[in-house]
Amino acid sequence: MKCSQTVTIVNQLGLHARAATKLVQLCQQFVSSIELVQDDKTANASSVLALLMLASSKGKTLEVHTEGKDAEQALCAVVDLINNGFDEN
To answer: What is the pTM of this model?
Structure first.
């Protein structure tokens, strides 16, 4: 199964190291592959370094792509984390 959704970075610091680490830890709970796409860059969501290379600041739009057995659950969890500002508020 494949799923995707567009989401906007809402937290003040964007997708910085602590937020990227939180996202990677969340993604490790799923068997599906999870990628984030911003403009022409794609990052595997299981790699902190790849996520940091996106340089996603507040207001940037990302597309979250999931593929696999638990793709829907993975997509919902990732979108929720991003929409909640990586729980930094």
So the answer is: 0.95
